[in-house]
Design brief:
Blueprint (H helix, E strand, L loop, with lengths): L4 H12 L3 E5 L18 H19 L5 E4 L1 H5 L2 H17 L3 E8 L3 H12 L11 E4 L5 H14 L2 E7 L6 H4 L2 E2 L2 E2 H14 L8 E7 L4 H10 L3 E5 L9 H4 L10 E5 L1 H4 L5 H7 L4 H16 L6
Parallel strand pairs: 1-2, 1-10, 2-3, 3-4, 4-5, 5-8, 8-9, 9-10
Antiparallel strand pairs: 6-7
Helix pairs in contact: 2-4, 2-13, 5-6, 12-13
The protein binds orotidine-5'-monophosphate (OMP).
Length: 304
C-alpha cells in the first residue's frame, strides 16, 4: 500500500460523502431466518451463514460508506471455520473497494505485540488477515503500541487506540486521574504524539483513537487534544448516540472521524420501523435503508 491510511480513509469519505462505518457483528440469534442453518448445525454451517450475511451486507453498502469494521469476536466464537470466514469477509470488502477496520482490540508486551501487528496488519503472504487497520488496547503502555506504529510506517496501515470507550463502566479506569491528568487524556496525548509526526496530505496521521458517541463532552475535548488523529466513534444507534452527539468529533470540513453503527444497520430488519416495511426476507433492503438514513443524519458534519 503506497498511500497513508489516513489519506486513503479521507479519499473514501470524500468519494462516498459518508462518514458511516458499518460494523459487521454477526450474531447467531439475530441472523435473518434464511441464513440460519437450523437445528444441529455445525460451527462450519454457522460460519458459512456469517460469511454470506457479511458479504451481502458489503455488497449493499460498498458504494454508500467508506469503511466496514468486522468484529473478530463473533467469528472467533466459531473457531477455525469462523476465522476463515473472517478472512474472506475482509478480502471481499477490499475487492469491493471498502477499507477495513478489524475490531480485535489486540495488544500484549512489545515482543508479542509485534506478532499481533504482523498478523493483522502484515502484507501479502506474510499475513493471513491483511486488514487496513486494527483496534488496539493501550493498557500495556507505550512500548506495547510501538510494534503497531512500526507496522503503520512499514505498510501504511492504521490503528485505532482505545481512548474513551462507549461503555458505561469504562470510566472506572479511563477517568482515573493522577498528576492532574486522567488516564484517557494520557492515552490521547500519546496518540497525538504518534500521529502528529506521521501526518498524510489530509493533515491526519495513521494512529487514530476510539472515543464513544456516548461521551459527547469528552469527544469535543479529545478532538481538540488530538488534532492529528482520526477518531473512530462507536456507540451510535443501538447504544443511544445520535448525530448531535458526534458532531464535535469532526473538523469543519467533515473530516477526522468515522461513526460506527453495527446492530442498527446490519439487523435493521428487526427494528420496528423497518420490520413492517421490508420484512425479514428483504433484510438487505433494510440494511440499505438504515445506511442511507444514517448517512442523511450525519450529512450535517460536512456543512458545519
Ligand atoms: O472498538 C470498538 O469498535 C468499540 C469501542 C467502544 O468503545 N465501544 C464499542 O461499542 N465498540 C464496538 O463497536 C460496535 C458497536 O456495536 P453496536 O452497538 O451494535 O453499534 C461493537 O462491535 C463494539 O465492540
Amino acid at each position: 500500500m503506497s498511500v497513508c491510511f489516513s489519506d486513503r480513509l479521507t479519499q473514501r469519505i470524500l468519494a462516498t460523502k459518508s462518514v458511516t462505518c458499518v460494523g459487521l457483528d454477526p450474531r447467531r440469534q439475530s441472523l435473518p431466518q434464511g441464513l440460519q442453518p437450523g437445528e444441529g448445525a455445525s460451527v462450519a454451517d454457522w460460519a458459512a451463514g456469517f460469511e454470506t450475511f457479511c458479504t451481502e451486507i458489503i455488497d449493499v453498502v460498498a458504494d454508500k460508506v467508506p469503511v466496514v469494521k468486522p468484529q473478530a469476536a463473533f467469528f472467533e466464537q466459531l473457531g477455525p471455520a469462523g476465522m476463515q470466514a473472517l478472512h474472506r469477509v475482509i478480502q471481499h470488502a477490499h475487492n469491493k473497494g471498502l477499507l477495513t477496520i478489524l475490531d480485535g482490540k489486540r495488544n500484549d508486551i512489545g515482543s508479542t505485540a509485534e506478532a499481533y501487528a504482523d498478523a493483522y496488519l502484515g502484507a501479502g503472504e506474510a499475513s493471513v488477515w491483511g486488514s487496513d487497520s486494527l483496534t488496539v488496547s493501550p493498557y500495556l503502555g507505550a512500548d506495547s503500541l510501538d510494534p503497531f506504529v512500526a507496522q503503520c510506517d512499514r505498510r501504511n496501515a492504521g490503528v485505532f487506540v482505545l481512548v474513551k470507550t462507549s461503555n458505561p463502566g469504562g470510566g472506572m479506569l479511563q477517568d482515573r486521574s493522577s498528576e492532574g491528568q486522567s488516564v484517557y487524556q494520557t492515552v490521547a496525548a500519546k496518540v497525538e504524539e504518534f500521529s502528529s509526526t506521521r501526518r498524510g496530505e489530509c493533515g491526519f496521521g495513521p494512529i487514530g483513537a476510539v472515543v464513544g458517541a456516548t461521551y459527547p463532552e469528552q469527544l469535543a475535548e479529545l478532538r481538540e487534544k488530538m488534532p492529528s488523529a482520526y477518531i473512530l466513534i462507536p456507540g451510535f444507534g443501538a447504544q443511544g448516540g445520535g448525530a448531535q452527539d458526534v458532531l464535535a468529533g469532526f473538523t469543519s470540513a467533515g473530516l477526522g472521524a468515522v461513526v460506527n453503527s453495527s446492530r442498527h444497520i446490519i439487523f435493521a430488519h428487526r427494528r420496528p420501523e423497518y420490520a413492517d416495511k421490508f420484512g425479514e426476507a428483504n433484510w438487505q433492503d433494510a440494511v440499505a435503508a438504515a445506511t442511507d438514513e444514517m448517512n442523511q443524519q450525519l450529512a450535517c458534519v460536512f456543512g458545519q
